[in-house]
Amino acid sequence: MAENQPLLGSNCGEVMCERETTDQRKSETSSRVVSLDIFRGLCVFLMMLVDYGGSVFPSIAHSPWNGVHLADFVMPFFLFVVGVSLAIVNKIALDRTGATLKVVIRTLKLFILGIFLQGGYLHGITGLTYGVDIERIRWMGILQRIAVGYIVAALCEVWLPCQGMKGVVLFRNYIRQWCIIFVLCAIHCGVLYGLYVPDWQFSVSQSTGSTTYEVKCSVRGDLGPACNSAGMIDRYILGINHLYAKPVYRNMKECNGSNSDRVSASMPSWCHAAFDPEGILSSLTAAATSIIGLQYGHILVHFQDHKGRLYSWSILSFSLLVVGVFLDFIGVPLNKSLYTISYMLVTSAASGITFCLLYLLVDIYGWRRLMFVLEWMGKHSLSIFILITSNIAVILLQGFYWRDPQNNIVGWVVTQFVHK
């Protein structure tokens, strides 16, 4: 077993938010939380697994609509890790304006990178061309959602720091950040259930011409794929041509499981429509996940012993789980595409429980060597995401072919194992 010493200490005395000395800061920031690196690496590994294995094993791919599969935990895991990392890296900001500027710049870099990787500029592992029509570029995506979670959680940490109340629990010291979580959830719930969705039309361009479809709605509070308010907001603000063109709900039986460019004309009209699972409304509760991760990071920083950390994390995780399951029981479905409150709570709880287990195995029992691959992946997560998960390495590899551009190793693998 590893030595029972905290990885990050907080010598703040009775007032937990008292500023540390310069030497203490250097000592704390020089220590890495190994379990957090491994958790980040696990996120990257799971993303690779579900992206490349989901077509072979549909049970691990994204749930078509309500419910959760393995793939539906990946994004919340990433957002959770963002929050935990912020609590460790960001100390009390003496220059809040300067800190805010740094946060905004980092967010813009991540957002722009996401547009390049997932905006349609790259044409996938079977496409030998590149480039995107600006009128059809996808504005939202995985990195863009992480950027939103990052900026919201970071600004909470900069402008709503610990209040420094003596003799009170950690929850009370960060009550303003919990209020932000509540406000985000309230706005999400109010808009999702309260906004009226009228009938709507859209056009789909095909080789034979353009076809116009009409979707009958005229409802309020519908959480189905056709008439939810989240999709309506994205269509009005972003434009339907800028949404994800192959929504996962095409795997539903109503759409005959046709998650491809070709959708039968006999299917419901909404099966032909684009829908973005990383849309505007769902980004509110996604950002709440990062703020929840921030609270786990506060526990890591402020508690001195392993037992106190694990106890606090466990209480918080199971509390979130109970509330999330209860909401699902009373009719708020677990839905990743809409990022419902029940889904946010359950996946945040799963993130916390996973982090507890990794912390126990790695930082307490010392099983670090057994997970060195995940640790390495966690330290290079963005590079791996760009090269592997976003298919950059695969696209470069298929540039080497035998006589015909289609005769390359990537095309052979796809033909033999994916489209077989």
Automatic annotation (TrEMBL):
Record's keyword annotation contains Amino-acid biosynthesis: no
Which residues are listed as membrane-spanning? 33-50, 70-89, 110-130, 142-162, 174-196, 280-301, 313-334, 340-362, 382-402
Q: Does the keyword Transmembrane helix apply?
A: yes
Sorted alphabetically, the keyword list is: Membrane, Transmembrane, Transmembrane helix
This chain belongs to the protein called Heparan-alpha-glucosaminide N-acetyltransferase catalytic domain-containing protein
Q: Which organism is it from?
A: Anisodus acutangulus
